[in-house]
Amino acid sequence: xxxxxxxxxxxxxxxxxxxxxxxxxxxxxxxxxxxxxxxxxxxxxxxxxxxxxxxxxxxxxxxxxxxxxxxxxxxxxxxxxxxxxxxxxxxxxxxxxxxxxxxxxxxxxxxxxxxxxxxxxxxxxxxxxxxxxxxxxxx
Length: 139
Hints:
The chain is α+β, with helices and mostly antiparallel strands. It has helices at 19-29, 57-64, 88-98, 125-135; strands at 2-14, 34-41, 45-52, 69-83, 103-110, 115-122.
């Protein structure tokens, strides 16, 4: 399992058609790849979380600020890359829970090659990084 700390950009936008496309169009034109996305729909606003090329996080944030968004921020989260198999998510949750690490937000995807990318927002990112490196390295 590969693990690293990455910066996630979070921002609120109006919950209406076309907003996502307008917001991320500048990222595409700037050749900034989005490697993870999570959108939570609210009544009036939606919360979007983006993980982008890590060498372009500040540039991505600046481009996003050009649109009608509110409360933009960056948060350090964990990115885990592993082989997807039954019990994988259970083992991650169990190990972190056993070390008193709370998973606040989790999103993941698995591609056709069974490579799974997991993004975790936790209460203690440095401690979680250490736990994953020591307890889940072979997973």
